[in-house]
Amino acid sequence: MEYYQGHSKYLLAVDCVVLGYEDEELKVLLYPRGFEPVKGKWSLMGGFVGEDESAEEAASRVLQQITGLDNIFLEQVEAFSKPGRETIARVVSIVFYALVRIHLHDKELLKAQGAEWHPLSQLPELVFDHREMVEKALLKLQQKAGYSLAGSEMLSERFTLMQLRKLYQAIYRREFDPGNFRKKILSLEVLEKLDEKNASESRKGAYYYRVKEEMVGMETSRIVKF
Amino acid sequence: MEYYQGHSKYLLAVDCVVLGYEDEELKVLLYPRGFEPVKGKWSLMGGFVGEDESAEEAASRVLQQITGLDNIFLEQVEAFSKPGRETIARVVSIVFYALVRIHLHDKELLKAQGAEWHPLSQLPELVFDHREMVEKALLKLQQKAGYSLAGSEMLSERFTLMQLRKLYQAIYRREFDPGNFRKKILSLEVLEKLDEKNASESRKGAYYYRVKEEMVGMETSRIVKF
DNA sequence: GCAAAAGTGTTTGCCATACACCCATGT
DNA sequence: ACATGGGTGTATGGCAAACACTTTTGC
């Protein structure tokens, strides 16, 4: 037991890279830091880990508090622990990324806190090492989306294959051939075709699909090579 | 600043999954836990993070202390933070895996601490969640080795293509065709052929190769599909 | 009719796999 | 001579990329 004695203890935080998809691009939820130091710069949403919860649970709780949403896709990215990473106190942060449906949000809740969605391609200056956290999170998402349809957590529950393709284009910052993408995705056999069509985004109208219930979160064969 | 007040602090540990390669299999360095609780069970090597170091630096320091080696390949696996994961105190552990050359070790140093190399395929019972750490570390190594020759950190600096192939077979627990493996690896253009041959492992003798100096740690195109 | 996306089919080339085959050499 | 790994070449199948083409429908 004296093994545990005499060692320093640290504040343990979680930071969440909350990602959403809107206007054919990925966005990250930021809020202005309201206190010193670095007051005014933009920050990821974070919080401290309580005594009765894991970092995963803390991240989930923070997300619930800030977005009002439950059951959010979360994956651990990495722990950031450099001594000087936050200037005031030593804080070790475990970073997660979260995938959310932007339009389901309680806009009032976000506005009340000054939170805003920022396109990933034009981030403002972020506090501390939060920019690096965003970059690492994107890499992790790219890995994940290469072997699953987890990215669809950012779309409506029903989506067309064009919507899914444009999402993938946003995630990987490259184009996918519409025909080939369709064949690839359908060959995975994780989507089920619905009877309804989306008539608003094309003349002809495209069928809606959704992830088969039993396939949510499942790994697939490789979708994107990188 | 009061933002930082009133939050709990925790012990922050690092645990290292030290991996080596010997007798055509992967091995992990374990040592018997010498104190309660769970005295006698096997444990990964770990330590606490000091005030002036990052988790990476702490892992590197712990490795140096225990193996006597410097400049070891290290990669972060994941943070483990469940409240009850260690029974006595709340300890958050950041897990790393390390790749080392078993034969370079100071055997005396290890023996003095009771440390032993255990084949990954026949692990004894481990303390707490250390077994899960080992499993996650192996997955991470498989990912890494699929896009780099980082695994060769477990071989001598000079190695034959058969040695490299058998290493890959150990990492992925499957066979690779000798001819195809050779062509694949050489096509990466990260190895340089040396003039010397290894005469001890075959009649004909196989040329030694080594990773080109400027290519150490570099990502390659995909080596293994999974 | 035209434009634009939906959806299907075809062609091509690359690459992974399987495997045949000769080489060199210690026993 | 022969067994063993070293090293090279080749045939095959599958799949990804490129792209042609038809369908549908709002304008």
Write the layout of secondary structure elements.
The structure is a homodimer of 226-residue chains.
Chain A: E1 9-22, E2 25-32, E3 42-43, E4 45-48, H1 55-67, E5 73-80, E6 91-99, H2 107-113, E7 116-119, H3 130-145, H4 161-172, H5 178-187, E8 191-198, E9 206-211
Parallel strand pairs in A: 1-6
Antiparallel strand pairs in A: 1-2, 1-4, 2-3, 2-7, 5-6, 8-9
The first copy, chain A, binds a DNA duplex (27 and 27 nucleotides) through residues 160-162, 177-180, 182-184, 199, 201-207, 225.
Characterize the structure shown:
The structure is a homodimer of 226-residue chains. Chain A has 226 residues and is α+β, with helices and mostly antiparallel strands. The first copy, chain A, has two domains: 2-145, Alpha-Beta Complex (Nucleoside Triphosphate Pyrophosphohydrolase), CATH 3.90.79.10; 150-215, Orthogonal Bundle (Arc Repressor Mutant, subunit A), CATH 1.10.10. In chain A, 26% of the residues lie in helices and 28% in strands. Chain A has five helices and nine strands; from the N terminus they run E-E-E-E-H-E-E-H-E-H-H-H-E-E. Chain A has helices at residues 55-67, 107-113, 130-145, 161-172, 178-187; strands at 9-22, 25-32, 42-43, 45-48, 73-80, 91-99, 116-119, 191-198, 206-211. In chain A, strands 1, 2, 3, 4, 5, 6 and 7 form a seven-stranded mixed β-sheet that branches. A two-stranded antiparallel sheet of chain A has the order 8-9. In chain A, a hairpin with a 7-residue loop joins strand 8 (191-198) and strand 9 (206-211). Chain A binds chain B through residues 1, 3-4, 7-12, 35-36, 48-56, 76, 78-79, 81-83, 88-92, 94, 222, 225, and chain B through 1, 3-4, 7-12, 35-36, 48-56, 76, 78-79, 81-83, 88-92, 94, 222, 225. Strand 1 (9-22) of chain A pairs antiparallel with strand 1 of chain B. Chain A binds a DNA duplex (27 and 27 nucleotides) through residues 160-162, 177-180, 182-184, 199, 201-207, 225.
